[in-house]
Amino acid sequence: MTEVRCDIAFTLNGAPVALNIGGHENIVDVLKRLGLSGARESCGQGLCGCCTVIIDGVAESGCLTLAQLVDGRSVQTIEGLDADGALSPVQQAFIDAGALQCGFCAPGFVLMSHQLLAANPDPSEAEIRDYLSGNLCRCATYPEIIKAVRLAASRMRAAQAA
Amino acid sequence: MNEIRSISAKQVGRDVPRLESRQKVTGRAEYTHNITLPGMLYAKLCRSTVAHGRILSIDVSAARDLPGVHAVYTGETIRTLIAEPYFGPAFHDQPILAIGKVHFVGEPIAVVLAADPYVAAEAAQMIVAEYEELPAVFDEVEAMTSAAIVHETLKPAGTFADLKHLSGKSNTNVALDYQLRRGDTDAAFAAAEHVFEHEFHTQQVMHTPLEPMVSIAEPGDNCLTIYTASQSPSFVCTEIARLFGWRENQVRVKVPYLGGGFGAKLYIKLEALVAAAAMLARRPVKLSLTMEEQFYTITKHASTFRIKSAVNKDGRITARRCEIFWNGGAFADIGPRVTQKSGFTSPGPYDIDNVSVDSYALYTNRPPAGALRGFGIPQLVWAYESHTDLLARGIGMDAVEFRRRNLLREGRPQATGTLMHDAAIIEVLDKTAELMNWTAPFERGEGVIRRGRAIAIGFKAVVAPTTSGAIVNLSADGSAALYMSTVDMGQGSDTAMAQIVAETLGLVAERVKVVHPDTDVTPYDMATLGSRSTFHMGNAVKLASLHALEQLGAMAREVGLPEGTNYEIRDIFLKKYGMQAGNIIGVGSYVPPYTSPQKGTGLSDNVTPFWMVGAAGVELSVDTETGHVTIDRLINVADVGRPLNPAIVATQLSGAAMMQLGFTLFENMDLDHGQVTNASLADYKIPGMHDLPTVMDNVIVDNNQQNGPYGAKGVGETATFGVSPAIANAIEDAVGVRLTSLPLTPESVLRGIRALRGEKLEG
Amino acid sequence: MRGFEFLRPGTLNEASALLATGDAAARPFAGGTGLMLMMKTGVFSPSRLVCLRQTEAEHRAITPTGDGGARIGALASLSQIEHDPLLCRLAPVIARTMTTLANVRVRNVARIGGTLAHGDPHMDMPPTLAALRASVVTSGTASRTVPVEALYAGYYETILQPGELISAVLLPDQTGWHSVYLKCTTRSADDWPALGVAVSVRMDGTTITDSRVIISAATEKLTRVAAAEAVLNGATAGLAAFTAAGEAARAVETIEDARGSAAYKTELVGVYVRRALQQATGAGGN
Ligand SMILES: Cc1cc2nc3c(=O)[nH]c(=O)nc-3n(C[C@H](O)[C@H](O)[C@H](O)COP(=O)(O)OP(=O)(O)OC[C@H]3O[C@@H](n4cnc5c(N)ncnc54)[C@H](O)[C@@H]3O)c2cc1C
Ligand code: FES
Ligand code: FES
Description:
The complex is a heterotrimer of chains A (162), B (763) and C (286). Chain A contains five helices and five strands, in the order E-E-H-E-E-E-H-H-H-H. With 162 residues, chain A is an alpha+beta fold. Chain A folds into two domains: 5-80, Beta-grasp domain (Ubiquitin-like (UB roll), Roll); 89-161, Orthogonal Bundle (DNA polymerase, domain 1), CATH 1.10.150. A five-stranded mixed beta sheet of chain A has the order 2-1-5-3-4, with helices on one face. Chain A is globular, with a radius of gyration of 16 Å. Chain B has three domains: 3-26 and 466-590, Aldehyde oxidase/xanthine dehydrogenase, molybdopterin binding domain (Aldehyde Oxidoreductase, domain 4, 2-Layer Sandwich), CATH 3.30.365; 52-134, Aldehyde Oxidoreductase, domain 3; 299-463 and 598-756, 2-Layer Sandwich (Aldehyde Oxidoreductase, domain 4). In chain B, the strands form eight sheets. A seven-stranded mixed beta sheet of chain B has the order 3-7-1-14-11-12-13, with helices on both faces. A five-stranded mixed beta sheet of chain B has the order 9-18-17-16-10, sandwiched between helices. A four-stranded mixed beta sheet of chain B has the order 20-25-26-29, sandwiched between helices. In chain B, helix 11 (377-395) runs parallel beside helix 18, helix 14 (493-505) packs parallel to helix 15 (533-558) and helix 15 packs across helix 16 (569-577). The termini of chain B are far apart. Chain C is an alpha+beta fold and 286 residues long. Chain C is built from twelve helices and 14 strands. The longest helix of chain C is centred in the last third of the chain and has 20 residues, at 262-281. Chains in contact: A-B, A-C, B-C. The interface between A and B is large, with 53 and 56 residues. Flavin-adenine dinucleotide sits between chains C (27-35, 37, 52, 74, 101-102, 106, 109-111, 113-115, 117-118, 123-125, 160, 165-166) and A (45-47).
């Protein structure tokens, strides 16, 4: 097959990038080329969330997102969360709750937890399970992840109130 | 805070967060998955489409002609580099690429290299192979007598004494026939009050680490550097050197964090292929498997276990006969060790005078099987603990009481004759019963929903004898770095080992640096497997730390500081060198004592340096109209010795139990004539958030492993032991249905319920 | 995966024209989640993908229709539908169905048009929408309105012609109707269903005046079970009628797969149809 190539330009964690890509490449391929490996392909089928990226504020599975579709849009990855050197409250809560083992799934869970808490600052345990059920952790750190999300939620609400 | 000296806080037994936590939550932790080297080529495999066949031809011309393809290699090309390109830890049975014949659907037959992985993948699709199909065998029991023979002759690697007698054997699929004989089972059965006999089955499942298997080889001048997601860097180094006929120091193996292992990344997997391809291409080569391809690479043994017990009128088990058939698939991998090392525990943690065990490693034309979180133990406990409940039921005795009467006590001989020490078997049973409120009445449900509960307990001996080495470098400022080849794949070994260093040297664990496996730098370690690291490496690390401490003491004496000084480490160095200079290297290496089992009887007075004990308690609900099972409560109780890091231990317990829950209730590789038909996470389901039991408790019983580092021992597998049989036992308790094959699907439950009523589901 | 054209027309009509080439490997691309899965597993190698997302401004709105129903543009995402106040009021069963459909990321991207056109019999929205008596409106040369239950011709097959695109979904007024969708998984909790059952009943007092019983996943294609509806219509709501409807539904032809044998799925059909009806007419329905 002859490859169809195209030029794309988008905002990556706040900074503009432009590059030439294969029309078939997904956004994880492109991020990897740009030196970012926090979004990583695992199941390759939208099921595990290891490849989670936030596009125009909305979470997507990078493994199912053709890179050319982010042309002109804004892409946020896990690497953008602590751009100022400080961990986000969700990241800190994951550490404090011990919500990671091998850590391969952690960036996806952290990003999805951010999305959840942005939409619902005080989720119930059932809501946390529903929202995060599209992320898989083979180390099965699920109880600790639920704990981490609740911890982050309470700290964020406390910070809001203060 | 940058304090490295620990004044008073205990370092061992403290919930130190994983040292690499920050890197992991920011997406910056290093995995082999992330590594790209300049000039690197991507490898993609073409795989066999038949389960057993002679290769007539492999046409790679179209693939080779595809623009962007750098090279295409087959088994014959590999042979130009390595005359005998077969590898494996127990048998040299696995060709780097198929030669002459293929042994299972999915066996690699050719590799394409290209700078663009999409080009390589497309080219791999263009390779056309022709086969003459041969009769195939897929079932482990049939493989015992089948006319289909997977390997013409057996080629044991020579490392294991008990495999030597198989060398050159032909016309057999048996890759090990392990035997244990103690007492007189025939007489005991003849004299028995009750005799019970059952057969249990487990299915083939896969580890599915979320970082799929990946290896990179970078060629140098008569040397190679291999970056690999491996649990056994030292073995990779040895085996690659053997294949190339090199010295070990020509091969450098580096391993960063692993995105999960569970046994999938043990011994040697993709490393030989990338090494050979890189040497042929003179370029770095990376092979990243897809999730699908992992299913063709390594799996967990399917098994058949026939178990027979004699029980006397007091409810004592007087004899047990175990016959186990392990479906090893096309290559032995570590299957023969599973067959033996787990085989000798197959009578269970029970005090039985007369035992006989026959455990067979079998080749079949399925994807290969190896170790998976338990090294065979979960398959065994599944059978013997289901059986144990049936015995108790059969003689009308309470299931906990029956176990308590028969469990091994301190100082009593296990099946091999080895006396039990520091195994808190009774304590684990009692704790489980207590947490289950066993003697209190139980709410059994009504109407459509019926409830049941049960327990199960298992044990494991650690693989022996094995070696670990460690180096501690104490710098002049008092900070320490630990050099070891234990691989942190999520179990938290970096953190636990840093705690041992810190405890021994009086430092803060968080400030200890752990240098990751690099065979040019870190000392030999047998492998990160079978829950051996905490104990073996832990002891080596402690010895290395003590060695450093000893030298520090000598240095203090040398500079005239009094014994028992509370001088800071840096002040001692300062006094000696007059400036911040110098360092101390502590080395430690540990091999526990061991007695090889006698040939034929399998008896040994020291078969393992320690025992792991785990039990599960389950309460569940069954929907009697659909067969759906809901786990209301899962209790995991373990003897882990003294936990070095209780929080990490608890997470290991719940993670292991959840993994086993998946293997119990739904995980299953569907095979159609040897073809895996559900090789993706869309169709091979693993547990997610919604599969968590409603309540899960993880409890550690008080124990001290006297020969362990600070009383600790292994933990990574312990909570897998009891889960499957406890669930099956609880299903029987709820609805009277006894299931003997995993997974315990709702359909099998419903069929059982209907069968009890004398009805059948049509079809 | 390589070597396909990716075109971005500004209107559905232009898209139709780009697709009406007779090339079976040319396909419309909406959310792309279904297509990417097929492309990555090598089931489908496109020659041309015609992206519909530039038509969003025109085709993603969810608006009330004059007769108490709603019109959902084909490019509306599943997340948008899940949280749309109008739909949540009109048919809360839609949002409830969404919570077990794939995951947040897929729902953020997948569009209702692609979801209905995909033709996989295991999907959750088609039975729910069929039970709600929804229909799809197509664009192209011969625009037509087709009830959702009539959209499917077989396994992964729809009656859509090459170049014929779904432009909207029409949802009728739901006043007096009570609907439930039950997804039955038999392996992990989050899985493709072994069986999907969607029911809608209209009640007059305790009498059922009209009903829809839809079966999916266990059958080769989405199936409306007229025999079960016949049992229900005119009957008094209650266990007897629901059990009888479940019995009648067992006549559908189920197919075996890794999630269960045909016989087991037939058992599930009987139980789940009854339970869905109980929920629809009890506290859980609407
Ligand atoms: C991880 C994962 C889990 C999933 N789990 C579930 C689940 O639990 N339940 C469930 O129901 N579904 C599930 N799905 C399927 C998912 O719902 C579909 O992939 C999705 O709805 C398809 O919508 P799309 O817009 O992405 O379609 P696309 O992929 O863009 O298109 C799908 C098909 O429809 C055609 N098409 C697209 N738009 C139109 C149009 N307007 N007119 C005509 N034809 C069109 C395309 O050519 C293609 O053939 C899952 C998918 C993934 C990736
Ligand atoms: S890799 Fe994209 S969701 Fe799993
Ligand atoms: S921590 Fe290993 S996969 Fe989640």
